[in-house]
Give the backbone structure.
Amino acid sequence: MSEAFSRPAAGQVPVLRLGNVLPVTLPGDLHDGMAHRLRQDLSEAVVRGGVTGVVIDISGVEIVDSFLGRVLAELAAQAGLPAARTVVAGMRPAVAITLVELGLTLPGLRTAPTTEAALELLGRTAAPPRAGRGREGSP
Amino acid sequence: MDTAAGVEARLPIRSDMDLVWVRQHVRHAAAKLGFSLVDQTKLVTAASELARNTLVHGGGGQMETAQVTTGGNGGLRLTFSDSGPGIPDLDRALSDGYTSGGGLGMGLGGARRLVHDFTVETVPGSGTSVRVTSWVSRPPRLREDV
Ligand SMILES: Nc1ncnc2c1ncn2[C@@H]1O[C@H](COP(=O)(O)OP(=O)(O)OP(=O)(O)O)[C@@H](O)[C@H]1O
Ligand SMILES: [Mg+2]
């Protein structure tokens, strides 16, 4: 099942829930206020419990600068989960090339080509055995 | 070909929303001048770093964009200026990992790597101006240093 944790207001990134995973899709150009807001929403969602992973889909993000790089690292660190439970999905090739030249590394953050691949990665390594949990399937 | 219309601009940098306009303008201008997707991305990323420095460290200022040409090769020049405190030790500010407050310290040095030409003029107590230029095709290598 999938339920909304927070009702997104204009200019807010919605934090949804898919089984034990919080999938977050960043907009093309995230301004700083939205990033701070997202950080709060995400940690509130984690505090409610049962979360085993976070997937941050950045396939729509046109650039990652040092600010957004830090936001991503902080989202991972303060989600209250081991950093490895956060997967950044869908980074554009041009963004990846630019990040290298900028000199930015995203320590501890795992990456996957797509959100599907990220969910699979998290499912394989951490989802509890399916036995009677009943939380997996989404509508 | 007259492309100056969508390229030349002077944009204020007073809030984080202004950073969004700065990025958008640089993206459009670079696309209009024929920069490749990767080169657009590099220039927009550099602009984002420099504009944020103007806002955060310089207390706000502006970005001016201009189309430049040399030997038939087109380019985009961005000038970020503020009347903030200036940068007392530029070499240190440019080194990776140096930050005077809470950042990663990658912005200034990283931006320099992402563009073809990079010049900083800074006067302690009266302000900073960072001018960067990138060319649609690589410029002839005149000298190695920046
Ligand atoms: N326009 C400016 N006016 C005054 N000082 C500046 C300006 N731009 C940069 N600096 C100084 O140079 C330092 C390094 O800048 P740089 O962008 O590399 O790192 P940062 O902004 O601290 O962190 P980040 O990695 O988030 O960009 C800053 O911490 C600041 O002290
Ligand atoms: Mg900076």
User: Anything to note?
Assistant: The beta strands of chain A are 21-25, 53-57, 86-89, 110-112. Confidence is low (pLDDT under 50) at residues 1-8, 127-139 of chain A.
